[in-house]
């Protein structure tokens, strides 16, 4: 049989270092385009004054708040979602490897990931307090205060509908977008580049935390990135990390809503809710749960390998 002149051209593998540069370039490019589109939509919808306020993170009205949500959606969230999908399907043509959307993993891992997010809270508070105590330049604190003020405005929820919207957007959509990019595409690239899973997970977690530009929350977010990274690497699926990410973000949304509605008496800015005993117990149980998670993942991989050989 002769070869068809229309047979597809074989895809030449791209070195991981070049993949990294391509992914980085795509992220920057798509975010720039997204922000341009968002700026145009805000200008057309609300005018130049609102666009100026948004650029300065100066949320002074309902219009500015709506414009800020447009900027967040079009300028950040959608670009972070589109980029890894485009990269995985079009550039490297290995979506299964770079997005890891398989559901073939023990579903008990979802429960363990949930428990890790809950049980680790005291330990995360300890790390957060340590980070807050670092002697960093004043401009970092000023920058973070400005971002925090804008974030707090966006987290104001006057109705159940607003809370559900925030839960869907901040909790789920953001979790999917960031996990596809960081634990899907980026972590896979770095594992293939460094040929060391642990180094790749740590570097990904560092970049994940740096991306959020929160200097006094850098170390806690780095720790979250490590949790998400190992959840994905051990299970071979992105969904446990997306679930854990959703639990982390979603719990913040729900607790803020309950506190704002006076349903619970809780100061979410209180960074001293637990004592040293709780910190130690939290760290020990978290490590134990991670050990169980890894052990269950390895057991499933061994079983799958045995079925393939059989």
Structural class of the secondary structure composition? mainly alpha
Q: Overall 3D geometry?
A: globular
Strand content: under 5%
Largest sheet: none
Fraction of helical residues: over 70%
**Please, how many helices?**
12
Mean pLDDT score: 90
The overall number of domains is: 2
Could you list the spans in which at least 5 consecutive residues all have pLDDT below 50?
Answer: 1-9
Secondary-structure element string: HHHHHHHHHHHH
Give me the count of strands: 0
Q: N- to C-terminal separation?
A: 34 Å
**Gyration radius, in Å:** 21 Å
Task: Name the descriptors.
2 domains; 12 helices; globular; 77% helix; mainly alpha; 310 residues
Characterization of this structure:
- The protein is globular.
- 77% of the residues lie in helices and 0% in strands.
- The chain is an all-alpha fold.
- It has helices at residues 16-46, 48-55, 62-91, 95-99, 108-119, 121-132, 138-154, 160-194, 197-211, 218-235, 239-260, 276-309.
What's the topology here?
Layout: H1 16-46, H2 48-55, H3 62-91, H4 95-99, H5 108-119, H6 121-132, H7 138-154, H8 160-194, H9 197-211, H10 218-235, H11 239-260, H12 276-309
């Amino acid at each position: 049989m002769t070869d068809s002149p229309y047979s597809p051209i074989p895809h030449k593998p791209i070195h991981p270092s070049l993949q990294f540069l391509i992914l980085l370039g795509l992220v920057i490019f798509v975010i720039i385009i997204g922000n341009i589109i968002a700026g145009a939509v805000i200008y057309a919808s609300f005018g130049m004054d609102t666009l100026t306020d948004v650029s300065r993170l100066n949320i002074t009205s309902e219009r500015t708040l709506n414009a800020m949500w447009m900027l967040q959606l079009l300028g950040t969230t959608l670009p972070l979602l589109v980029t890894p999908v485009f990269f995985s399907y079009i550039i490297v043509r290995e979506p299964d490897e770079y997005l890891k959307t398989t559901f073939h993993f023990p579903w008990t891992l979802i429960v363990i990931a949930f428990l890790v997010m809950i049980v680790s809270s005291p330990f995360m508070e300890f790390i957060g307090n340590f980070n807050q105590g670092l002697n960093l330049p004043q401009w970092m604190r000023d920058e973070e205060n400005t971002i925090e003020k804008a974030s707090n405005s966006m987290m104001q929820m006057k109705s159940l509908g607003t809370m559900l919207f925030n839960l869907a957007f901040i909790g789920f959509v953001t979790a999917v977008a960031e996990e596809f990019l960081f634990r899907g595409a980026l972590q896979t690239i770095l594992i293939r580049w460094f040929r060391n899973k642990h180094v790749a997970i740590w570097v990904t977690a560092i970049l994940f935390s740096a991306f959020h530009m929160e200097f006094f929350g850098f170390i806690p977010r780095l720790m979250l990135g490590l949790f998400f990274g190992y959840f994905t690497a051990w299970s071979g699926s992105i969904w446990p990390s997306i679930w854990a990410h959703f639990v982390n973000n979603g719990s913040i949304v729900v607790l803020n809503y309950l506190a704002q509605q006076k349903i619970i008496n809780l100061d979410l800015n209180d960074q001293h809710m637990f004592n040293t005993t709780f910190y130690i117990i939290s760290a020990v149980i978290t490590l134990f749960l991670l050990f169980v998670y890894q052990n269950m993942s390895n057991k499933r991989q061994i079983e799958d390998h045995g079925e393939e050989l059989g």
